[in-house]
């Protein structure tokens, strides 16, 4: 059905599409295309500098490093390239790229004889921790005659050892095998280092490229040029493997399959490939007493600790995945359009895989964990002020997931392993969650105390699990006490926007203060829900009244809050008031929301409203937080500008959350953020309570 719909779409475009015609993009041309994006280590993209055209281009890891992945198709004895930068056969003509929340669908014309559709399919299961625990992705290749004549067709795919090691001087080993009608090529780094990375790629685990057996299936492991020339010259592989294990970059070993699809005329023919990583232990975690212990991959509990059971199960689950993910794709698109129109859907559908691609599922079914990697900024694990902007996606899809993210933070700090009275910033560097027993983490006390209290209440509200609040009440109250002491007039504090520079002397940050004050109001709710004395309500209300006097420049036209108290020439996006509406507190005056909403219209640049007056930089997660609680005109402005940025930006890598609001490029002199999970913030509108 997907094939028929795509052919019809292309036919409707008329005669403009021919040999060499530019690709069509639906809903838009993204900065980069998610190919296989399921975890921090299975995170491959087609970067946008290619114009999002796949033939002739190497897929790349989120870092921008090449991950050898080559695809060919042969029609009537002539080979063509549909993916990868290897020399040899010329490229097919890309007709279109369409992305949904879980799929990237490329349509190619091959010599005006065959229409080839290649779908990169990375399922996201918010309600199924078993299936989401696997670090695997699908690629399907479907061929059909486009001229009505019969044509002989063969398809080919290989991957290189670059997937198994971020250090190309390291030796890889390999093997071929079969299991339950499945053929697989297994490869792994010989020198395994558990919980270590090389250039952000895991130095442990086994990689599998797999496909189902069909008549005409062949395979080969060997030097890249040898294997690829074998297919181009013979339209089949040799069913053999080289015996000499060697470094990734020594004669570049590749692992390849070829399917002979036979004569294709009236019927479409599909072949399914799977690619992924198996790791037994996935995280090193200091739960208690500062002692690091390995945490198993959650997949092990469901698949009897067996690589092959997991590999076979994922392949055989394809039809279920298609049905389930079609419903999820439709749900996100429908909800997004109803909330804010097609432009909003364009944004949310691109954000789903990127967000979940930063998560590692660990533990057991009885005690599951989700560990987050702060991809590209500094690779921290369980960064609280990265979980917070991503939080709307969990509230929208399945709030229970948020508990699996918060649990490691509570467990570590409640064990006495963290000496400070305020909330810990993160738990270390992924994949080692050792925490900071000396209390020497990057201190963002007010930021993280507010975040933890707000997220804990949001989880309990959406799940009804007030027992969670009771269990953690002592430490929540401890953090709330810090807010009492420091939220109204923040002391020398860093906020989550530390990348933008410090405020001299980092005092009296208006937006940070309101987060702490809302955190106190949230703590009032927590006290009531847990039958504790509410020592927070009156304080929060008093602070809010004073904050309005300190924070608002009433003399401006239009009036607005300042970036810091008393600096009337400054302003910033007041995104932290979003938490008031997320929690349904109705605490902050509607007049504050309306005032900011009116003001944003007056300071918007080409692609966004600047984060604050220090730069022309914009943060897309905070743009959506502000849009979610703005008047309709302002909400549409935020969304339309961000949607335009998605289609025009020159950033060309997995969607950044930090860009220049005028040029649309990476911020000059600022950090380059890519592939970060904060894109979960794109779901801010969908996470709000239903009226």
UniProtKB/TrEMBL annotation:
| Top-rank taxon | Eukaryota
Q: What's the name of the protein? A: Glutaminase GtaA
Q: Which residues form the Glutaminase A N-terminal domain?
A: 102-335
> Which InterPro entries has this protein been placed in?
Glutaminase_GtaA, GtaA_central, GtaA_N
Q: What range(s) does the Glutaminase A central domain occupy?
A: 341-686
